[in-house]
DNA sequence: GAAGAATGTCTTAGCGCTGAGATACATTGG
DNA sequence: CCAATGTATCTCAGCGCTAAGACATTCTTC
């Protein structure tokens, strides 16, 4: 006697909610079960939903960013500088690590933000290779306006999730990220 | 006396794992608490981790796709055709809805796959506006090779997550997706 | 059955990102 | 103190995507 991930995951929602409608991922899994019954596709229950959730959330957040003349990339840079606290200065490398993008992406993000007068880039005194990126008053004002709206959008997205499931979701993602080595090195 | 989402979410991992190391999102939340203690940034516990998890997973899956001469977009199309079952034919619109991308993106994906001889595109008999996309024998063979490798990668990614948390993660994502209207319309 | 609306696909300009590599500066070891 | 190595940033070609719209075909309504 042995357990597959499948047996644990097959329609867990059906247990909690007997009348629950099958979602997109349920249909995908059912299709695979018909086409390749020899394969255990239960991991798709996790990753299929992760991908769809990310896309739905991303689209919703982008709508709010656009209302403030921003996109996710620009908001990310301004918010990272803001939350770093006084004097609201970071190096491109620091921004790069926080954003999980390449150095080239950060260079271009900063080009755009600098052209709009939202950040400044100055040479570092301590290290001639490095730059210091700082929020301008305009950048400061913009992120102060956009942040509460962004949080309101996030609260709205979580409206349909009860507190227990929200906590469980955070706990699982935290555990998984730790297991995958995120946040340590 | 009232509860904020914050009080429910603040370091839930610390309860389950007293010695748990703070992750990237914990640091972000702590920074906001110092800079803007008036704001409840607890929703970021969810969305910050969703974003990072998506990126880490995406990178890992792409590595496996690349080993088979594929990327996520191409794999997605081939897998969607494969799991649709005999005769392994779908319209671009069907592929578009499954992939959550625009029609232009599907056109370009199909251009690339057609050029590599992995799919064919023919006029539909029933509807002159529509096309029928079908797997070629080469496309069939490629997805048959890539799919088990892909599943193995997914199983590996879930290694660090115990069964209870895996089930809770799926349940929460399913609930949230349903609340956000995914999979119904 | 013709006009207008709707649908399915393709086209194209523009965007942000990656990967590879260039450049400038800093650090280390002999 | 110099050479070799490492680090921080920028450059740029190429990629896949979106948004807007073109075009052909089908459906709807009168």
SSE blueprint and pairings:
The structure is a homodimer of 185-residue chains.
Chain A: H1 5-9, H2 12-16, H3 24-35, H4 43-67, H5 72-83, E1 89-90, H6 92-99, H7 103-115, E2 119-123, E3 131-135, H8 137-157, H9 163-179
Antiparallel strand pairs in A: 1-3, 2-3
Helix pairs in contact in A: 4-8, 5-8, 6-7
The structure holds a DNA duplex (30 and 30 nucleotides).
Features:
disordered N terminus, 185 residues, homodimer, Arc Repressor Mutant, subunit A, 6% strand, DNA-binding, 9 helices, mainly alpha
Kindly state the number of beta strands of chain A.
3
Largest interface: chains, residues each = A-B, 76 and 75 residues
Q: What percentage of amino acids of chain A are in beta strands?
A: 5-15%
Sheet with most strands: strand arrangement of chain A? 1-3-2
Helix content of chain A: 55-70%
Question: What number is the mean pLDDT of chain A?
Answer: 89
Determine the number of helices of chain A (DSSP H or I, runs of at least 4 residues): 9
- The coarse overall form of chain A would be elongated
Order of helices and strands of chain A: HHHHHEHHEEHH
What is the name of the CATH class of one domain in chain A?
Mainly Alpha
Oligomeric state, counting identical vs distinct chains:
homodimer
The CA-CA distance between the termini of chain A, in Å, is: 40 Å
Q: If you consult CATH, what is the topology of one domain in chain A?
A: Arc Repressor Mutant, subunit A
Structural class of chain A: mainly alpha
The CATH H-level superfamily of one domain in chain A is Winged helix-like DNA-binding domain superfamily/Winged helix DNA-binding domain
Poorly predicted parts of chain A:
1-19
Sheet with most strands of chain A: 3 strands, antiparallel
Give the second-level CATH assignment, the architecture of one domain in chain A. Orthogonal Bundle
Using only CA atoms, what is the Rg of chain A? 21 Å
């Amino acid at each position: 006697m042995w357990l597959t991930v499948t047996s644990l995951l097959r329609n867990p929602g059906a247990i909690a909610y007997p009348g629950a409608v099958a979602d997109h991922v349920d249909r995908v899994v059912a299709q695979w079960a018909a086409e390749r019954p020899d394969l255990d596709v239960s991991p798709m229950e996790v990753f299929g939903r992760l991908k769809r959730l990310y896309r739905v959330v991303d689209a919703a957040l982008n709508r709010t960013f656009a209302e403030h003349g921003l996109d996710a990339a620009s908001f990310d840079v301004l918010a990272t500088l803001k939350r770093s606290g006084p004097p609201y200065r970071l190096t491109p490398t620091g921004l790069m690590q926080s954003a999980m993008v390449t150095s080239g992406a950060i260079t271009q993000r900063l080009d755009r933000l600098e052209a709009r007068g939202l950040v400044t880039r100055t040479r570092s005194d301590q290290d001639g290779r490095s730059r210091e990126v700082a929020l301008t008053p305009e950048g400061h004002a913009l992120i102060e306006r956009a942040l509460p709206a962004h949080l309101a959008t996030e609260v709205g997205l979580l409206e349909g999730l009860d507190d227990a499931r929200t906590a469980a979701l955070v706990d699982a993602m935290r555990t998984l990220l730790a297991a995958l080595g995120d946040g340590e090195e």
